[in-house]
Amino acid sequence: MALKCGIVGLPNVGKSTLFNCLSKAKAQSANFPFCTIEPNVGIITVPDERLETLANIVNPERVMPTTVEVVDIAGLVKGASKGEGLGNKFLGNIRETNAIIHVLRCFEDENIVHVDGSVNPVRDKETIDMELQLKDLETLEKLRDKNIRTAKSGDKLANRIINTAEKYIAHLEAGNSARSMHSNDEELEIISDLHLITAKPVLYICNVNEVSLKTGNKHVDAVKDAVKNEDAEVILIATAIESEIAELDEIEEQQMFLEELGLEKPGVHYLIQATYKLLNLQTFFTAGAKEVRAWTIKKGMKAPKAAAVIHTDFEKGFIRAEVISYNDFINLGSEQASRDAGKLSIEGKDYMVKDGDIIHFRFNV
């Protein structure tokens, strides 16, 4: 699925370092594939231990993980919404993403100059929020103004569009982001084509030093307090440590380094998994002698739509889905054993795929 997250933040907060770490991330037992589509776009494998476990049982010819696309948006500055610092280009890049990873500097280092002269992640967050909100205000005002003449003629839809736009404008002018707006289905449909930047879900990354990685610090506490009403996750990552991990070529070397620090996995693993969750995604698997593969779908997707992720013909000619839960497959040790134990269910078009389902689709085209 062509879904991607944009990494945003002020200059010198650790965005590009984080992106570079993601580009070199390695799983516990295999390298993470990474490719550059453009200078600042990468496709990164989602770590999933279930895929490795399945592969060990099935022993296929190849294993194919699922991926997410991550975009490194160049550092925003005050005035970006008015074009400062090539702001229009960067804001345009953010608009094309499905979710936002907001990196905040939560460490002190006199050797790394902060663009505003001091470390204050809450201030930094407010700066970015304001620029994004101003850009969304501009978009909403254009929508409202475009429909004024039609509304005056008595057009009901145009009036509803104006009312919705003004409701969002008032919300943003109060210093809020569109994602915190309580809207009905009609209002959401009206603004859906606008791709409002502040309507996108957000994940906050506190870039800390090694000392603060486990327990946090005053900057992290301030960030958590500032976002407590946003229904957003906050993750601590030390990009300096992640850079060192990324430079180690062997998995064993990485593991030894992590153990010395008292860590189980690189922080970027948790970040990638949180990004996957942020995009409201889940995974189902196909497992056979030729391939064990993870497939990405939106949560709540029904079987025919999930089948279309593999191939559109699967949806067109959908007959049924043969489903085994991941836990049953692992506990019983094979598809045949699952069949024999009655753990394979036959599901129709209304079946809602669950995370971890192992599915074989039957179709006829």
Task: Characterise this structure.
This protein is α/β, with parallel strands linked by helices and 365 residues long. It is built from 14 helices and 13 strands. The chain has helices at 15-23, 49-58, 87-95, 121-152, 156-173, 185-192, 218-226, 239-247, 251-261, 267-278, 303-310, 312-316, 326-332, 335-340, and strands spanning 4-8, 34-38, 41-45, 62-64, 67-72, 99-105, 202-207, 234-237, 281-287, 291-298, 318-324, 345-347, 358-363. Strand 7, helix 7 (218-226) and strand 8 (234-237) form a beta-alpha-beta unit. The model is unreliable at 26-37 (pLDDT under 50).
Which structural category fits the helices and strands?
alpha/beta
Shape by Cα distribution: flat
Percentage of helical residues?
Answer: 40-55%
- Discrete helix count: 14
N-C termini distance = 23 Å
SSE pattern: EHEEHEEHEHHHEHEHHHEEHHEHHEE
Number of strands: 13
Mean pLDDT across all amino acids: 87
Rg, alpha carbons: 23 Å
Our estimate of the beta-strand percent is 15-25%
Write the layout of secondary structure elements.
Blueprint: E1 4-8, H1 15-23, E2 34-38, E3 41-45, H2 49-58, E4 62-64, E5 67-72, H3 87-95, E6 99-105, H4 121-152, H5 156-173, H6 185-192, E7 202-207, H7 218-226, E8 234-237, H8 239-247, H9 251-261, H10 267-278, E9 281-287, E10 291-298, H11 303-310, H12 312-316, E11 318-324, H13 326-332, H14 335-340, E12 345-347, E13 358-363
Parallel strand pairs: 1-5, 1-6, 4-10, 6-7, 7-8
Antiparallel strand pairs: 2-3, 3-5, 9-10, 11-12, 11-13
